[in-house]
Structure formats: C-alpha cells, structure tokens
Amino acid sequence: MKRLRLLFLFIFILSTISKAQEKPNIMIIMVDDMGFSDLGCYGGEIQTPNIDQLASEGVKFTQMYNCARCCPTRASLMTGHYPQAAGIDGMGVSLNKNAATIAEILKDNGYHTGMTGKWHLSETKALSNSEEHLKWLAHQVDYSPFAPVDTYPYNRGFEEHWGTIWGVVNYFDPFSLVHNETPIEEVPEDFYMTDFVTDKTLDLIDQFKVDDKPFFMYVAHTAPHWPLHALPEDIAKYANTYTDGWEVLRENRYQRMVELGIIEEETYPLPENSSGRSWADCTEKAYESACMAVHAAMVDHIDQGIGEIIQKLKDEGMYNNTIILVLSDNGASYERGYPPGFDRPGFTRDGTTIEYNSQNPGAETTWNYIGNAWASAVNTPFRYWKKESYAGGTSTPLIVHWPDGLAGKANTINKGVAHVIDILPTCLELAGASYPETINGEQTNKPAGKSLLPQLNTTVTNTNDTVYWEHEGGRAIRVKDWKLVALANNAWELYDLSNDATETNNLAAQNPQKVFELAELWDEWAVSVGLRNAPTDVPVEMIFHYPFDGNIDDESTNNYILQSTNAYDFATGYHGQSLLLNGTNQYLDLNTENLVNPQNTPFTVCSWVYNSSDYIPNSGEFYEEVILAQKNGSSDGNGRIFCYTRSFTDNASFNNFMGANPNLSSSGSFERNKWIHVAAICDPQSQTVKYYINGEKNTICYTPAFENCTGGFRIGAHKTGDKNFWNGNIDELYLFRGRLSEDEINSVMENTWSTSTDINDQSLDSFTVYPNPAKKKININGLNCEKIELYDISGTMVTKAEHTNTLNIQNIPSGHYILKIVDEGKKVYSSKVVVQ
Which of 57, 86, 557, 704 could form a disulfide with 81 if both were Cys (CB 3.0 to 4.6 A apart)? Predict the structure, then answer.
C-alpha cells in the first residue's frame, strides 16, 4: 500500500512538472481606437465585465505604450520592431518581408497560428476612377485582390485568417473581407463584424484543439474604430449615459481611476479637454451624446465576445494555460467629418446612400465619428488622441491574464514602462523560440523589443528605459522619467513624468540642454530606423568671417567684399571692435551668389551680438531684428533668414527661418543690452536647426524641408532690405559650410579659430588646427617630434618633416587635412587641420 501511495505521488509530481513545462497558448486581443479609460477596470462607465474579470485575475499595466495609430502599432506588435524599421513609414503600406512576424516564428516552433479580424499591414491603393472605387467599396464591382496577396496574413505565418485586409470597415458588410487568400463575397443579413471576429475565434479554437500543439491566436478587432456602427440593443443601454457631456465624463472617470489605484492625483494632474470645446457651448448636445453612446455600445459588444471566448477556453480546459493580452492600438480617435472616398463608402451594396454625420448614428446607412472632445474625454487622464505622440495617443491599457504562469499576481497593477515592441520577444520566450537569422529568404534584423516576463515577475521595474515615437511629423522620446514630445511642425516640449505624467507643465524653457540631449538621441534613432538618412559628412569650410575690427574686410581666404547702405559705425566689441547699426535702414550686403544653398547644404552661422533696442515686453506685438539673411537670388526668387531675434511678450529667442516655420531657440535665450554668442547649425538632411548659446547646447528644432536659395547675403536687415533692422552691435560674424562641432563652436566663440598657430600635446585630440596663412607653418610645442606628416582627406601624404617641431605649409592648397605627429617616444598624435 505504501508503494502504491508513492507511485501515485510520483505520477502526480510528474504530471505537475509536465503541466508546468507545457508551452502556453498565446492569445492577443487587440481593440481599435479604444480610449485609455473606456474599460470598467480602468475607470470607465462602459459595461465590460468580462475584460474586468481578466483584470481581476491578472495584471493591469498603466504605462504600456503603442505607436499612436493603427497600422504602425500592429506592425510593432507583430514584429518587435519600431514601425519604420518594419517598413511601415506611412499609411497603407506593406510590412517588410525581412521583419519576421510572431506567427512566422511560432509556426516554425510547433504552434498553430490563427488570426481573426483587421490586418492593415498590406499596401492598399484607391482605384484611379473614383466612381468605380466607391462601387468597389460597396461590393458592386470586383477588383480583388485587395492588396498584394503575398502580404496577406495567410502568407505571413498564419495558418488561418478570417478578417479584413484594409483598415476601415462597414461593420454590417465589410470591404476586403477574406478567408486566407479568398474574398468573402457575401455575408448573412444579421452579420456584424465584431461577432464575426468572435465566432471565427471560437471556430479556430475548435480547429486547433485536435492535436497537442499549442496555439497562437491574434484576435484583431476593428471596433470601436469609426464608423460608429452598433446593434440597437447595445446602443439602448447608453441612451442617457452621456447627456451631461464630456467634462463630466472626464471628471468622473478621473476620480474612479484614482480610487482604483490606476493613477495618483499628485503625479497625474487632470488637464483641460484637449479639444478646447465646452459642453455648455455645444449646440448639438443630443447629436454628441448619441455618438458617444454608439462608441460605448461597440466597446460593450467586444466585451460580450470576449466573454464567449473565455467560456470556450474554460470548456476546453485551456483557460489556465492560455496567456491572454488585451490592449488597444492607440488612443481614441479625434477624427470627424471625412467624406466618402478611399476606405469610406458612399452607399451600401443595394445602393442606399450612407448619411455621414447622421443625427441618429449606429445603423449601416450612417457614418459617424466621436470627434475630438469625446476622444479627449475617453483618453482621460491624458492630453490629445490617436495620431499624436502625447500620452493620449500612445498609452494603452494592457491586461495580462495567465493563471498558470502568474500565480500570486492576480488583481495587481504594474506601473513599469513597456511598449508593443516587447510583445514579440515575450511570445518567443513563452514558446521557447529564438529569433531567426533569416525569414522569407531574407536576412533579418534583431528586433528592438524585450520580453515582458521579467517585468511581469517584478524582477525588473521597466522593460524599456528609452522609448521612441514618430508618426506623420508628431514625435517623442522618453528616457526614464523625461519625455520630449512635439506635434507635427511644432517645437519640442519637455515633461518630467515622475510628477507630471499627463504632460501639463512644459519644462523646455528651463531645461534647454535636456531638450538638446534628448533631441539628439531621437535624431540618432530616426536615422537608425530609416526615418532619416544618415547625415553626409560635409567638410567644414569657412565661407566668410567678418571680425569688424575697424573695417568690413572678410578675414577668410575668400575676401568677399561688403557693400554698405547708409552710414555705419564701429564700437567696442566682444573681441576688439564690432559693427554698430542704429536700427534704421543700416545694413551691409555681400552680393556674391551661389555660396551656399540651404536646401541641400548644411551650414553654421556664428556671431557675437549686443542689442540695444527699446522694445517693450508685453506690448503684444512681434518684434524682430535680423543678424544675417540670404537675399533673393536671381535664379530662384527666394530668400531665407539665417539668424535673427524674435520677441513676443516675455518670449525672447533667437530664430532661423528654414522651411515653412520659424525655428526658435529656448525662450529667454536672447537678452538685450548684453553680449551673447549665438551659433545656429542648420541641417537640411536631418531637417534640424541646432542652437548653441554662449557655447552651450540650447535646443534642437525639427523643421520641414529647407527651401532652395542661392542669393547673396545681408547683414543687419531683412532679406528685402526694408525692415527688421538690427539695433546694436554685431561682432565676429562667421558663416561655414558644414556642421561645426561643440568644440569648434567654442573655438569660434573664444576667437581662437583662425589665430591658433601652435599645437600643444594637451589639445591634439580636442581641437581642429587652423594655421595662420601669414606664417605658412605649423609649430608643435611641448613635444620632441621625430616626424610630422600631413595627409589629405583621401589618405595621401602631402608633406612631411623629420626631427623638427615645425612643418612648412607654404605650398599647400587650402583645404582639410589630417596632421600626424610621432614623438621621440614613438607616441602618435593626430588632429584635424584646416589650411586657409
């Protein structure tokens, strides 16, 4: 009997070990355009008991990020890459073949792979004939395939796919509906897209349970993405829920989130509705509340379907060892008013006209949107919405449920930082799979994400300390608790998320160097993912240098001549004397054209300036004064302002007008009646303007493409010569072709750029050498030189000297060189040299 008990115990232990070692089923449930606080377990009033059940038995994340829009997020989720690195650099494009998907990898590692719902990762194009295209959307003509078939989910690792290829659907008769590669041409009368996704998920569970293989299931809902289509019985639940408006909704949700422990009032201050709209001023309250009611009904119906999936997993004995992740692809959508076209039909299959922005939304013959005020409200507590890189666009609720794998973690909140790029590595770790070196016959690149399991098990606080975003010009970077973020074509804003998680207090003006530091990191990332081309190495070349020491001579070897308009004076400068202009039609012109074209050539402007104008702050008017402008060229008719100052109320900044908007340095960086050194590095390749003020990093502006200009230059006035006259001093004005380094900018500022003739061993690795042309030699101090060699940029030696500390450069052409020095102890030194 004792032996029998031991045998049973042994069998029990073996079965327990086997169960623990069994690979889990993996199910990702992605919803579309859901607000951060829509779910009941995240503070919402929408009825989501089934998702709430998963949360009560699992882990809720508060700092999980997406990519701000549907297809970029879905690309990152599928591949572990940032979307640009996976080929998704816009809307309606195909996923790269060399970016391995979760399905491709898990299929090769013993998993069944199934998908239901929205793909949105294939190239989609409108027909050239708009009338035919609208008929195609309404199923009246057939122009399938809907996209290149080799990009369909069925050909990216999924054994089965029931769903849509395009991103937007009529929920009652969806366009681009397929089973694998085959279009589904007819749907039943009672068809509803959310039910279709649920039903096909249940079918695939049945299909995959026939053997011992685990499954990976991607349940990709289209809801609650517009159009606002829902079933009447669901809409009825919320008929009177939203009649108090979006401010009341936002406040109520915020308070519930605090009570639930999702947020804390101290670190999540509640901002105003980002739309700027007031419910009191709304003239269409019934219409607005009806739109929000349908949105709620759509979320509600997703939850009903998830309840069916939960029950199915329980019935099949799979519930405990299926890890379920529920999340949204971005924040709620601000969009409204789009007319028929591209992915928006104008009529139904039977020809009935669809009413856009209907007063009674919900039916197939209507096409509505919630708009920006409701979007801001359902993204409580954050600012903004889908598309933007602020938290309202990029934050997603994430629920992770896995009884067998997360014992002791039930009903917990994880406040660490993670991103959808981390989902693929998580799936691979769960499946015991490695990332492949090749896929689809192509070499892969290692994904950027990391597994979430250490964060779920609290062995690490954050999966990622640094996260990046970019979409349609909006951009952001988070490094630990610092976040740099901007709307498209707007200046960077800086937030300390440790005490301002809702991004309400912009600290950019107080921390310009932190802005600069993070912006440089973002720019490096943009190059790494192919969003930007790597900057071409443009040798630094001095175009002109006007020290204004009692004359207007160009001290560069080019000797460009200035012409004056009206009288000018000289006065005490920062270094020697300076140009003095009185702010009334005094300026100098350099009329030589084609010296630099900002459209395609990086350049750097440096100058000491002292402004004496009597501008009165808070006057409510812009006040601008120009340091250097490029005049209208005879060949292009344009003009650019390379460096000027701008004052408006208490914001006084240096400015540069490259591209379609001003590019301001930090607020307060320009002061009157004080010598200030300004350096602006303007780079058309990275589309940035970088400022150094008094030799220190100030800020980086991201600007649209620079414009063509080949004219001469104007010092001290607008390019037109009739306004914005400089009032005060300008000293040591330089223009360089190329990007100066921080050390080089400091050398210019300290006036050691062109006068340094000697090299000390302490400075060899730190400074570029600029020998004085008058001396025709380079002297080496502090070393006993065995030999000195000078090489051109191709690596060819052009001259040398042995057993001397002097190198003659009398016959050396102007240009860039490398100086190599070997001392008697055989130690080697090198430095850049610019011969002028």
Answer: 86
Q: Are 332 and 35 in contact (CB under 8 A)?
A: yes
pTM attached to this predicted model: 0.84
Helix (H, G, I), strand (E, B) or coil at 457: coil
Q: What are phi and psi of 696, to 5 degrees?
A: -110, 145
Q: Which two tokens stand for residue 528?
A: 């790494």
* Between 776 and 582, the higher pLDDT residue: 582
Rounded Cα distance, 193 and 223, in Å: 8
- 347: which 2 tokens? 């009529």
Both tokens of 68, joined, read 């701000």
What is the Cα gyration radius of the chain? Answer: 32
The residue among 125, 131, 118, 177 whose CA lies nearest residue 147 is: 125
Residue 100: helix, strand or coil by DSSP? coil
Peptide bond into 224 cis (omega under 30): yes
What angle (nearest 5°) sits at the alpha carbon of residue 210, between those of residues 208 and 211? 95
pLDDT tens track for 470-511: 999 999 999 999 999 999 888 899 999 999 999 999 999 889
Cβ burial 508-545 (10 Å sphere, 16+ → b, else e) = bbebbebbbbbbeebbebbeebebbeeeeeeebbbbbb
Instruction: Measure the CA dihedral 540/545/547/552, to 10°.
Output: 180
Write the CB contacts of 207 (distance below 8 Å, at least 6 apart in sequence).
112, 114, 160
Task: Collect all residues with Cβ–Cβ distance below 8 Å to 254 and sequence separation of at least 6.
Answer: 43, 263, 270, 380, 381
- CA 413 vs CA 42, 399, 458, 467: distances in Å: 11, 9, 11, 21
